[in-house]
What we know:
Blueprint: E1 3-7, E2 10-13, E3 18-25, E4 28-39, E5 46-51, E6 57-59, E7 67-72, E8 77-82, E9 91-103, E10 106-113, E11 117-122
Parallel strand pairs: 2-11
Antiparallel strand pairs: 1-3, 3-8, 4-5, 4-9, 5-6, 7-8, 9-10, 9-11
Amino acid sequence: QVRLVESGGGLVQAGGSLRLSCVASGSIFSINNMGWYRQTPGKQRDLVAAITSGDRTNYADSVKGRFTISRDSAKNTFYLQMNSLKFDDTAVYYCNAEIRYYSGSWLYTHDYWGQGTQVTVSS
């Protein structure tokens, strides 16, 4: 069973920093694209940052220059470093990954989501 578990959310003052982590566990063969999304009540889940298996990155315009996505493939872990946080960054943050995994002697590919971690920025 493959799982994604996020950590690192919390309450921070505007201008502060947080680092989110997402650890993938299970019978993992490889992890392809990874991303961080965020969602506020009543709104859709939006992409914040993404990173490919080749370490190409992509960011939402609202976080460019403030957030950095990275990955440690050896640990099946990826991160979102968030600096200069603003009140509007308040949301539940979710990690997402396309994972190839073993089931018996077969390989499958599936898109997984973490459970979400709350980030609250006080003004």
